[in-house]
Amino acid sequence: MTTIASGTDTLTRDALTVLQPGFTGTTAPDWVLRRLGEGLASVGLFGRNIASDEQLAALTAQLRAEREDVLVAIDEEGGDVTRLEVRTGSSFPGNLALGAVDDVGLTRQVAAELGRRLAACGVNLNWAPSADVNSNPDNPVIGVRSFGASTDLAARHTAAYVTGLQSAGVAACTKHFPGHGDTAVDSHHALPRIDVDASVLAERDLVPFRAAVAAGTRAVMSAHILVPALDPDRPATLSRRILTGLLRGELGYDGLIVTDGMEMRAIAGTYGIERGSVLAVAAGADAICVGGGLADEETVRRLRDALVEAVRSGELPEERLADAAGRVRALAHWTAERADASQSLPADGDVGLRAARRALRVTGAEGFTPLTAPPYVAALTPVANIAVGDETPWGVAAELGRLLPGTETGSFAGADAGGEVLAAAGPRRVVAVVRDEHRHPWMAAALDTLLAARPDTIVVEMGVPGAEPRGALHVATHGAARVCGRAAAEVVAGA
What we know:
By secondary structure, this protein is of the alpha/beta class. The protein is built from 17 helices and 14 strands. A 6-stranded parallel sheet has the order 2-3-4-5-6-7, sandwiched between helices. A 6-stranded mixed sheet has the order 9-14-13-12-10-11, with helices on both faces. Strands 1-8 form a two-stranded parallel ribbon. β5 (171-177), α7 and β6 (219-222) form a beta-alpha-beta unit. α1 packs across α11 (297-313), α1 (10-17) crosses α12 (318-337) and α14 crosses α17 (482-493).
């Protein structure tokens, strides 16, 4: 039952309502439960909050015992960005793999099954899908999280994903508006800038968001990017021109606008989270996402007080804050009405693996004989971006070990990686696993060394396949989810 503390005024309740904070631990701390009673309407969950489906269901039940219509949000894209399966790798391939298959029916089925599983655990808002057109092959943060570099492909699969996810009663949050694909900077670290004409943005980046709006996406997430053609002064998250003028006005979107994480350096390093949150709501954002890095009660108090003070000082119109809070409550009502939607969906636990198998692109299979002896798996490992994190295992070693017991593995990086692999592998057949070879000169050099000494080396590319296929066998998985590793291992071992 929703309870509101009698001493909490409307303004303070509205300020709490627009926050989507995180917390630490696998049970809800007392401060979260207390704030839910005072008006907090949303929480965001991360890998640190999840140990199992059963534990997650107990956690969401604990939250709903305090506020039955609470929005429980999660960053569960499937593929490389997973919170449900942060310690094992995802049962679902990511967007690039789905784009490689290019079967919108399959994308819808994958999203519906993911939504069914989220709903079964009590999660009702997913910060997905990524609708970004990955037009810059050197993009360090989107990459395999995008359906691809084609505008039309990204648009039709974004719409299919939104439809599938929401068929389970889980609200989709399409991101990162107005499009994060043409960046060479990670907004977790700095403020990216996209210098293209407005016409290019309209014909390329905005098309998938138009498709998402047409498909009925219940939420849209803003990007911390500067787009001078749209607003030369402020990043999209803080831009009234972009959020209210473009998204609300030109695209006709009437749902919830959520910010990307406010503690990301693109905002926190320039404006600070309090000032940034006030500017975001004033610009048209309805929900402030914070909690990936700052996950404590003090952060919630600071942001609440900053919003209240901005209204009292006249900087933030009270009706704008009230409108934002109203949109949060409207989405909470939508999810509460559809809480049982997932029960009508048949479980399809194998859909992720089927999709991962179909996404493989294999070069050199004609003359390849599957392995029968355990190989040495060399993971040429780049630094993970913050969205993906470094908790989640990736590669093919575990799956090859299951198929070929005795498989050994090691992780390598840097200028001497190729020679180190040769020394470690000894006489064993080498399976080199890479991630975005085209973006990492050291990785390409390591493959040069390996293939010169051992031309029978098998190469598995688990990122964006931007480099020419090479090796005795080259397998492009279009993502590093656990099911992608399994599909690749099946090819290598002839399973």
